[in-house]
Protein 1
Amino acid sequence: MIRIENLRKRFGNNDVLKGVNLHVRPKEAVCILGPSGSGKSTLLHCVNRLSEPTEGRIFVDGEEITAKNADLPALRRKLGMVFQHFNLFSNKTVLENLTLAPVLSGIMSPENAEEKALTLLERVGLKEKAAAYPHSLSGGQKQRVAIARALCMSPKAMLFDEPTSALDPEMVKEVLNVIRELADNGMTMMIVTHEMNFAREVADRIVFMDGGNVIEDATPAEFFSAPKTQRAKEFLGKIL
Amino acid sequence: MQDRIIRCLFEPLGTGQPNGLSLLINGLGNTLLITFGAVLLGAFLGVGLAVMRSSEKRAWRIPAFLYIECVRGTPVLVQLFIINFVVFASVAVDKWTVAIIAFGINSAAYVSEIVRAGINAVAEGQMQAALSLGMTKAAAMRHIILPQAFKKILPALGNEFIVLIKETSVVGFIGGIDLMRAGDILRSKTYDAVVPLFTVAVIYLILTVALSQILQAVERKWSRR
C-alpha cells in the first residue's frame, strides 16, 4: 500500500533521513517508535509529500507520489493524515471541517458529504458538536474530529503523527480508542507514537528509528520482549 | 464669526451660483468616490500581490517584490502625475478614473504587505491540513488561509482605508475637485481662509473618526466568533 525506497531527507547540512526503506502492506498497522529527532515525523510528512524528499521514491497504492508529474492532490486523498496539533480549520464549523475537502475536490455532493460527515461524527461520538467551532472543543474532541475529517475523504491509508502527544493525559484514551477501532476494521496505518502500550496492542509491526535510519522492524512481541539492537534496548529501558 | 460662516458656507457665491457648502459636499462626494474605488482596487490587487509574494516560485515572488518596493519607495503624488501625464497622456479618461487607478495602485502595495503579514500569522498547520486532504494550494488559500488572515488584519486594513481618505486630498493637483480642492476654491472665492479650511478639516475628521468607530464595532463582532 505504501512503499518507501531509499528515502533521504536533508535540511541544510542536517541529514534527517538517511535512506529509509519500508513497505506497509494493506490492512497493516505499523507503529513507528524512536527517540525525538530520529526522523519519525519527517518520514511521515514525506509519505504525502508535505515535506519534499531529497532523494528516494515513495509509492502509494502502486503510484509513485515522488514522480515529477504525480497528481499530488489525488494521491494525497488516498492518505488521511492526523497531526499532533489537530490543525482543524478554525474558521469552519466541525461539520464544515469534514465536508469542505470532499466537496471542493468534487468526490462528493454537498448532501452526500454532509450525510457521511454526520455518520463519522457519530462514530467518534461527536455528532452533537457538528455546528460548533473548533475553539470550543477540548483537545481530545479536536483530535477525534480531525480523525473523522481525514476519514471523510475515504482514504486508503491513514498517517498519524503523534496523535496524542499534545493531549492532556485524561484525553489520550478517547483518541486511542478511535484509532484502535480503525485498526480493528482493517485500516492501513502508519502511526508515530510514544504510547508504548498502545503500540504493543494495536500494531502489526513495530518500526524503530534512530538517527534517520530504521534500525529495527519486528512484531510487537519480538520488539518489546527481545529487542535486537542495543539502541532499542536503551530506549525501552528509559521508557518502560 | 457667525456672519463669516454664514457668508462663506450658506450664501450663494455669486448670482446663480451654489453656496459654499454645496461646493464642499460635491467635493466630499468625489473624495468618497475616489477613496472607495481605490480601496476596492487596492484590496483586489493587494491580495493578489500578497499571494504572489508568498509563493515558492521566484517568477511570482520577484515581480511582486519589485512592485511593492517601487510603489512604497516613491511619493504618491509622483505616481499620480505619472499615471495622469504619462500613462493616460493621450487617452481620454476622466480624472476620477485616473485618480482611482493611481491611488488603487498605490494602496495595493501597502495592503499586500498587510495581507502578507496576515497570511504568515495563520498557523502553518492549517495549510498542511488542507494539503493533506487533497486540496490545492489555491483552494487552501481561498477557503482556509485568507479568511483567517483577513480577520487578523482587519484593524490594519481599516487604518489603510483611513490613510487613503486623507491621501486623496492631493488629487487637486491633476484637476480633480475633491473635498480639499473644493475648500481651496472656496477660500479663493470668498477671500476667507479660516472658515473653508477648518470646515474641510472637520469633515475629514468626522469621516475618519466615524470610520474607525465602525471598524472597531465590526472587529468586536468578529472576535466573538
Protein 2
Amino acid sequence: MHRFIFKRLLMMIPIVIGVSFLIFVIIDMIPGDPGSNLLGAGARQEDIDMLNEELGYNRPLLQRYGKYMYDALFRFDLGKSYATKKPVVTEISNRLPISLTVAFNAILFSLVFGVPLGVLSAVKQNTLFDRIPTGLALLLAAQPAFLIGLLLMLIFSLRLGWFPANGIASWKSYVMPMIALGLPYGGRQLRFTRSSMLETIRQDYVRTAKAKGATARLVIWKHAMKNALLPVITVAGNSFGILIGGAIATETLFGLPGLGSFIVAGIKQKDVPVVTGGIIVFAVVFSFVILAVDLSYAFVDPRIRAKYSGRRG
Amino acid sequence: MKKVRMALLVTLVLMVFAFPAPGAEERTLNLSTLAPLTTIDPHATSNIQDIIFHRQIFEPLFFQNEATGKYEPRVAESYSISDDNLTYTFNIRKGIKFHNGEALKADDVVFSLNRALKSSKVRSYLASVAEVKALDDYTVTIRLGQPNAAFLNSQNMIMILSRKEVEEQGDEFGTKLTLAGTGPFYLTSLQHDVEWTCAAFADYYRGAAAIKKLHYVPITEASAGLIAFESGELDWYIAPIANWDALTNNPKYRTELVTANHISYVAVNYEHPPLNDDNIRLAIAYAIDKDAMNIACYDGNAVNADFMAPPENTGAPTKGVVYNYDPEKAREYVKKSAFPNGTKIGIINCSAGGYFEKMAQVLQSNLADIGLICDINRLDSATNLEMARNQKYDLLCTGLSPYGDYESLRMYSYTKMKGAYMVKYEGEKFDYKTMDDLWDAGIATTDLGERETIYSRLSDWIAGTATLLPIFHKVQPYAWTPNLVVPVNYPNYPQVYEWSWAKK
C-alpha cells in the first residue's frame, strides 16, 4: 500500500511539469499581452511595453517558464499576480479552502440525496418509487447549477430572507451554493447508484444470499450495497475534483472567491502566474482526490484490499 | 432619598437624550462594485471599478465635478498658471491630515506626482509634465514640457499619497490595509475579492462624512446583484437596465437614470476593401438606426449621440457633421459606390456577453437593409481589444469613457500615440497631419472658446472620414433605498461623502 501511494505521489511531479508547460504555451498563444489587457483600450503602446517589461513578459517563453518552474519547485513561489501584485500562493491559500468547502459539501449533499433514492429506485424497479426518483434525477441532472442557484436566491434570499445572496460572511453563505451544485450532481448520483445497484442485485452471490434465507434488508445493505458503491465512489471522487476548480458559474453567482473564478479571471487578463499557479494547485489537489478514491476502494472491496496486502507481502 | 432618586432619574433622562439611539448614526452603508478590487494603490490601476472606490479614500490636487464640469479644490486650495502656460503653481491646503494622522505637506505631493510619472498605469495622464518641485511646505510647481489646457483635467486622476505610508509598505503598498489617503473615508478592513470596509475620517478637512461606515462587496453577476439589492443586502446599486421598469415602478425604491460619461460607437476599418470605398462608408453611416440600437441595448433609455464625447466634457463640440438614420440616402450611396447592387463587407467584431453584441445585431440588420452583408464575430474582450488595436477587424462595435475633457479622446485617433487608436489614420488615404495638428492646437490654448472651435473642426474632420460613428451615451440606472439621501448621482463616480441617512 505504501509503495502504491509513494509511486502515485511521484507521478505528480511529471504531471505538474507537463500541466504548467502546457498552460504557459497555451496562454502565450492567446492573442494579446497582459500589458494591453491590464491597461485597457486607449493605452499608449509605450505604456503597454513598459508594463510588459515590468512584468517580465517580454522575455522568451522558455526563459519565463524556466524561471517560473525554478521558483515554484525550489522556492515554493508561484510568482505574483500581474493584476493585484499579490503572491499567487497567498491568493490560492485564501481561495482553496472556500472551493474545498463548497465542493465537499456539494458532493456530500449529492450523496445524501442521490444514494438512498438510487437504492430505493433499484430495489423498487418499475414502481412509482422508481419512476418518481428517476424522473426527478433526469430533471435535476439536466439543470445548470447557475439556474438552480438563481431560483434558490429568489426563494431563500429575496422571499424568505434566510440566506445571504452574496459573500462568505458565515456558514449560511455556503448553504445555497452547496444545494445549487449538489442537486444536479445528486441527480447523476441517483442514476449511477440505481444502475449499479440493479446490476449488483442480479449477481449470483446476491441470489445465493437470498436463497440462504437472508432478509431483504441484509442482502441489500450488507451484500449488494458494498459492491454497488464502487462506481458511485468513483463518480463522487471525480465530481469533487472537478468542482474544486470548475464551479465557476456558481462562484460568480454567489460571490464566492474560489479557485475557479480566480483562474478564469487570470485567463481573461493573461495573468500567467495566476493561471499557471491555479491550475498546478488544481492538478495536485485533483491527483490527491483520485488517489483517495483509489485508496477508498480498498476499504469498500475486500478483493482490492487483499490485492494491496498481497503486494506488501 | 427622594432627591437622590430624582437626581438619578434626571441623570438617566439626560443620558438617554444626550446619546443618540444605538445604531442611528452608526448604520453601515452597503455598496457593491462590479469586480473585485485589484489594488488599493491608485497609481497602479486604470480599472474603473477600482477608481470608483479609490475616490472615497484618496483625493487629487483639484477635483473635476462630473455633474458640473467645474474644478473644485481638494488637496490644493488654489492654483495659478504662468503667462507662457507652462508652469502651474499649486497652493497646498494647510491643516490637511492623512488617515494616519500626519500632516500633508508639499513633499507628499511631489512624491505622489513623481511616483505616478513612473507608473505605466497612470503616467499617460501626466504626459506633458517635465518637472515637479516643492517651493516650500505648502507650495508646489509643476512645469510642463508643452502647454496643456487639459492638465487640470488629467491631474484629477492622480491621487496624493502619504510618502511615509507608501515607503513603509514598500512593494506591499496596494495589497494591504493603508492609511495613505486624505479622503473622507479611511479603510478599516480589506479582503480584495470578498469585502472591504471604511469609516468616516473624523479629521477630514471638509468635515466628517454624514455616513459613518461603508461596506463594499464585489458582485459580478447582474441578477445576483439585483437580488442582493432587493433583499436589502445593498443600499445603493447600479441596476441592470432590463429590470429598470420594475424598479422604477416599485415605491420601495428611489431610482434615477444618469447619462454616463461614455460613448458607444462603431469603428470602420477603411483599409479593408470594400470599406475603402468612401461611398460604402457613408452608406454605413446613414444606415445605422441609432434608435433601434438604443432600444436593443438600453430599452431606449440611452441618449443618442451626435458626437464622440458627451456635451458636458470641456471643449466638446455641439454642432457639426452628424449622420442620422436615413436608409434612402444610404441606398443612394451604395448605388454611387463601386458595388451598386450591394456586397459583402466583412465581419463585425464585438465583445461577447455585453450589450455590444446587441449593437452588432442591429448593425448587421441595418446594413442588410441596404444590401451590405456581414457576419458577426463575438470575441472575449481581451482578444477583441487586441484585434482592434492591430486593426484586425472590418467593423467594430465598442465603447470608451472620456474623462471630462475632449482632449481625452486624442488617444483614439492621434497618429503619434501608437497602439491606442482603433482606426489608423496614418497613411495616404486621409490628410491625417491636419487632424494631428488640430489635436495639438486644442491643448496649446487655454481659451475655452478657441478650444471649442478647434475641436469642432476636429470632430468634423473625423466625421468626414465616416470611420468613427457615435451611436449613444449609455445610462447608469441607479437605484437606492428611501432611507438614503443621495443629493446627486454622478455619471461615473459616486461621491459617498455627500450622502446621508434620511431623518425619520
